[in-house]
Amino acid sequence: MAFWVYALPVGEALGHTAAAVRLAISVAIGVQIAAGLAAIRYSILPAAGVVIGCLVAGLAALALIAVAPSALLFAAGLCLFSFAWVFVLGYHVPLVTDFDPTRRSVMMLTGVQLVGVALGPLLSASLIGGTVGLTPALVAAAAFALALAIVLAGRRSTR
After folding, report:
1. pLDDT value, residue 158
2. What phi-psi label fits residue 60: left (phi over 0), alpha (psi between -120 and 50 degrees) or beta?
3. Rounded to an integer, what distance in angstroms lies between the CA atom of residue 71 and that of residue 58?
4. pLDDT higher for 62 or 127?
């Protein structure tokens, strides 16, 4: 959420017009619907692999957004970010149950997700000085990298 709250000012800071960024956001929201449907269709995939893949895709999308020389590449990065962000949601519960055979951790999952949704924008806002720049994208990338490290560590400890 750190990135979504600031997608428009980030796009403008990167030199894209407000109209182009708004269009990219609208298309990316449509991609979120497609991602939700794809997650239903491919729900049989292994949770850890999907979560790792989506975290890597999210990091790649943020990198593309940060260096996108055109509004089209910015939109492509935003769409990839949107797809990964929504596609992964249904795989959180199976991942947590894989890591915690007692399944007690599942009860905390929604709360943890909400804390993450709130902390991203809060952290971004506290780090932004006079201009938005890439700060929200960097905060989101740091959160994705941390989550990737946690998932990889969890996989190693459960083997």
Report:
1. 67
2. alpha
3. 18
4. 62
pLDDT at 34: 97
Q: What is the DSSP string of the chain?
A: -HHHHTHHHHHHHTT--HHHHHHHHHHHHHHHHHHHHHHHHTTTS-HHHHHHHHHHHHHHHHHHHHH--SHHHHHHHHHHHHHHHHHTGGGHHHHHHHH-TT-TTHHHHHHHHHHHHHHHHHHHHHH--SS-TTHHHHHHHHHHHHHHHHHHHHHHHH-
Residues 83-94, mean pLDDT to the nearest whole number: 93
Task: Please state the pTM of the whole predicted model.
Answer: 0.88
